[in-house]
Amino acid sequence: MGSGGAFREVPYMGVIWVVAEAHKRGFWNGNPDWCNLGQGQPEIGEMEGAPERLRSVVIEPEDQAYGPINGTDEMRQAVADHYNRLYRRGKKSYGASNVGIAQGGRLMLSRIFGAVQGRMGYQVPDYTAYQDMMDYASNRLEPMLIPTVEESNFCIPSDEFANAAKGLDCYLVSNPCNPTGHVILGDELASYCETARREDCTLIMDEFYSHFIYEGDQPGSGPVSSAQYVEDPDTDPILVIDGLTKSFRYPGWRLGWVLGPPGVIETLGRAASAIDGGPSRIVQRIALRALEPGYADQETSALREIFAMKRNMMVERLTKMGMRCLPGAGTFYVWACVEELPEPLNDGMGMFWAALDRKVMTVPGEFFDVNPGGERKGESPFRQWVRFSFGPPMENVDLGLNRLENLLMDNS
Description:
Blueprint: H1 15-23, E1 35-36, H2 73-87, E2 99-102, H3 105-113, E3 118-122, H4 129-136, E4 141-145, H5 158-164, E5 170-174, H6 186-199, E6 202-206, E7 214-215, E8 218-219, E9 238-243, E10 256-259, H7 262-275, H8 281-290, H9 293-320, E11 324-325, E12 333-337, H10 348-357, E13 360-361, E14 363-364, E15 385-389, H11 394-411
């Protein structure tokens, strides 16, 4: 069916483009002959040390109806309890009114971008979807890029953020960062939150990788969240976005949440009435079981153990291949510079096409150069960077690295 001029051209973004190109060559999700080192989801099967996967839910009669726009009271309270247990001991608690539920993280971001206005600070590299969302809100939003340098792991030091925030209405960042794996934590994260309060600059913290935390080459002792440094959940201008997609390994459930002041949560609910109509009651019902303390802690602890091993293997082998790996302490990605490799592998796109010939998928770094409206012209500063994922199971990551090592040998 022809569309004439009724629809604009919508480009594939980042990982979606990678998968589309791989599909042309025979890739399908779960194909054992392919290694998806561009993968944006963690392995989803049974995992050593983790509890059994949740596989069934009883659908109650009330689940056939529309649910509350911001989520059921039970789900909202379960998320609040989860955060209070992990981050708020001895501090003022989050309540159900501090929580909104959406059918996935990108949908929660869409609600936020449906309501936000003014000057929005951001950094690069960062999550690819932010660019289109900024463009959708361009009539209300003025994106303000705050420059970063490799010496700071492509993150903005807290003293620089304190200065930049004076001219911002809000600031959006993924923490831990997709793609670099850098984590703002401890005193730095406390300083970010203090700046937000002082300058009344709303922090929009995308924390979907909050449990993928490493200390050196060891699993981290626990998750990281700005929720730990919120003074008053009812008034602090800090939004915390997370869900079950990454840290609980249930991406197909599409269950995300936001925590913040009740007035903001209500506003986001009103935005949701036009954007999505609210989350599935059925998904929320099974999600309650994932957030039960015993289940949640066993799952996320096992996750850090297994993913730390995969991370160590990937960093060691990519380094031996001649890549410079950024010392990230979170996510399931390695952000690596390929500039020292032989042509054509010394360029993110060159690496992508050559690896694709070996049935290995990678994500060129330039996709993370968030550039609203395409205003910044010229070559991306991340053209020689690549994001490698250790999201797949160990044996598949190992196979992908074997193929990359053979690729390097054939090009040396």
